[in-house]
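Possible regression after last week's pipeline update?

I re-ran a chain I had predicted before the update to compare outputs. Posting the input and the new output here so someone can diff against the archived version. Not blocking, just want to make sure nothing changed silently.
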Amino acid sequence: MTVTHETLNAWADDGLGPVALTVRQRLVPVEGGAAVVFPPTYAKSDTRSPYDIDTLADGTKVCTLDSVGSQANRMEPQFKRPDLAHLVPQHEIVYGNDQVLSILEAGHRLGDAVIRCTDLQAPAQEAFVTFQVTGDAAPIAELAPTSLVFGVWDSRDTQAKLPRLVQSVIRAWDVSELRRSAQYVPPLDYADLDVFSDEDKEKQEGNPKSPLAQRGYVHVPSVDQHGGVVVHGRIERTVTVNLIGLRRLDHGDRAQALRRYILGLALVAATEPPEAFLRQGCLLTLDPEHLAGWTLVARDGSRTSIDLTPAAALGYATAAAEAFGVAPGRRVVFDKARAHVDVGDAAGRKKGGRAKAAS
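New output (post-update):
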């Protein structure tokens, strides 16, 4: 099925239109299919793996290599690229020693704490309240349209919440977990050079928590640490564009232009080649032997293969952005005083909540 601008407009506007776009992309480590890959690690108990591994009923172990939230945080900053920057406002936050943070790098988007510490706080709050009261998400799109693409929850203030329209996750199927050990050997015998005594060396050597070990002056073993996973099955990235969620942006005078604009951004985000370098030890690419195309899912569950390319998505997004109007970016300054007030307000609310519960 060939996709035209008219086709995409219908997906954005027709309440009886398709429910989603989806693709399953096979990935492969750059070292080859049998290579060891390193998933993200999480806080764990002594009896649990630091990796996010689930065991299915048949015993198959499935490991998350990149979560939905992590994928969104990788996809969103792509809109800073010179070829995509015209699609969204390029707000920047100056902090510290003239360091700059793009709003596209704020993990909670328009609901992030860093926004509340700048002059963007008032317009962001107003946009969230407008959405809550009227259902009109256009003010949010004017400030931070990717908040509508990847979802936002203003959980620390207005409680306004909008779902993700683009969802992506990477999982590895049928994995075996590995362990690894290492030994640090200092280049010099510092006790022999009278930096410390032989007695201190003997007491602290081999203890990773000792002061000399932590500073790299004595031998330090690292034993039985997590060592990645071997994937016996497939590594798969699943991407979904939620068209029902998109069409719920149906309030306000600019609802149609808004839906088309957000659809354009969603398609650009979804069709861009995935970020290959997830973390040290996890460098993946698309598998050229299992290239997959996009599928359009209708209300009755029927599926149609569609020809959706990054170039087509960008062309549509550019036209939709021009029609909606992209606000100029702002450079704002992180205000420590605002942060102090915000933290104080949060502490006050918590204290008040406890007092109320106790009464």
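Follow-up from reviewer: compared with the archived run. The two ends are 64 Å apart (CA to CA). Marking as no regression found.
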